[in-house]
Amino acid sequence: MDDSFQVTFRGVRGSIGTPTTLAQMEEKLLKALERARPEDLKSPASRKTFIDNLPVEIRGCFGGNTPCVQMRVGGENLIFDAGTGIRQLGQDFLKESFGEGQGKAHLFFSHTHWDHIQALPFFAPFHIKGNHFTIVSPHSNIKERLEGQQSPEYFPVPFDAFKATLDIADLNGKSEVRIGDVTVKWQEMCHPGKSYSYRVEYAGKSVVYATDAEYKDMNKEKLQPYVDFFRDADLLIFDSMYTYSDGLERRDWGHSSTFIGVDLAVDANVKQIAFFHHDPRYDDFKLVDIFSLTETYLKSIAPESKLKMFISYEDLTMEMMNDESPEQGNLCFSVDSKKPHYSSK
After folding, report:
1. Most buried residue, 68, 162, 282, 297, by CB count within 10 Å?
2. Considering the domain boundaries, does residue 34 fall inside one?
3. What is the count of structural domains for the chain?
4. What is the distance between the alpha carbons of residues 277 and 35, in angstroms, rounded to a whole number?
């Protein structure tokens, strides 16, 4: 039995792809140089160590690709949404069995707004005969929606040109699906046109992918269905597109904030929350400033809370850990690459 549970963020930006600008790169370089000491620059090894120890927003970026989250769970490949982040996932898949036409995966769609489907035509494994994908969405007409964005008015290659086998899961009357030993459940969220959150459960652990949702009424009774769905999750991937004040100005746009994410995570006894679907207007330093305010907010409303928080960024991979691991304390996921530490100074 494969007991692995791995989550990789492939695209974390909301609404529209947002490449890093030249001015933003110059700002990052200046901030890096301000931190450098002579001993940091004396050798290739010291320079590498210096770069590795810089916070995410200086050494690189949180990312400008639109939503896509990959999970490897119990030997199964699960993909959530097909924003521009799925293109690089496809390139990486080509190095595996998908490159030989022997790959298999399930692709879940939260909804079909452009930023969540726009890179599907550029997902290379779809173009290789022998690969098998099962498309899952509570939207009953998901195939027609995906075909629509590849009609001649919008795209030169039609949906039926894909060579891989693409099956549409029949969810009629179902509230969950089983994929091997993995269970995936869904919950309708408040978002224009309907969006769905997914809860992935395996071997007593759980991850919730809760993008594109607005929590208009903060009444405890109204929030209870969401709290129940998030309950005891080891990791909650949460739409925190706006600051709290921006969210008030954009009511009915279908998104949330870090503060509301903290409220729900604390009530639901979530272990870790990943802030996700970043506003394209917010640069990396703005995201860090918001995170700092959110840390203060958590301490003010729940000073004893053990909730772990971080800003999701592209290529961040998290591996399930044992609760009793002495290295990780009570963390259930650990970062297997560079630590997600931030500093706005």
Report:
1. 68
2. no
3. 1
4. 30
Judge whether 81 lies within some domain: yes
**CATH code, domain with 183:** 3.60.15.10
Residue closest to 186 by CA, chosen among 195, 134, 266: 195
Q: What's the whole-model pTM score?
A: 0.93
In a domain, 191, yes or no: yes
Residue 12: inside a domain? yes
pLDDT over threshold 70, residue 40:
yes
Letter for the amino acid at 290? Answer: I
Residues facing 186 on adjacent strands = 198
pLDDT in tens, 227-286: 999 999 999 999 999 998 888 888 889 999 999 999 999 999 999 999 999 999 999 999
Residue 312 neighbours by CB distance under 10 Å: 26
Domain carrying residue 305: 5-20+61-335
